[in-house]
């Protein structure tokens, strides 16, 4: 594969990343080709050492998603990290996908329930004094506050569990994939030390 073909396929795989990030990645790999050719290697040898550009792009997208998650810690960054890892398309991800979707569905359901309990608590707190409830107005206000406090606590716990799940997915991806470690660098260092010796 020539340098032009490699860079073209890499660019296609990086579509969707911010343009500045994609341009920086492409520039890095252009440099790898320049260094490899300067060391006497052919473009085909450099391309073979770097690996499949489509897979490399998927790995780089996963790493970019993981970095965004570690910097921003918001739902958008979490979704980007999860989908980037799923985009790697590995067999183990496909096996874990049904389990992961079940867990995400359960977390979503619990989140909806937390919101419903909070709203119900607010309704009881506001409407209770105007209704004839056992224990009187004070009991309904306290019951409403208790429900709202419980829902808030459950929501905080749900947020911690969700952050932990996203961190676990990112950890899994980093454990199973070689990210941002081009194969050319170790060989270039070996060639350089071999020339000195």
TrEMBL record:
It comes from the Bacteria. Pfam families: HAAS. The chain crosses the membrane at residues 77-97, 104-127, 139-172. Keywords: Membrane, Transmembrane, Transmembrane helix. This is DUF1700 domain-containing protein. It comes from Brevundimonas staleyi.
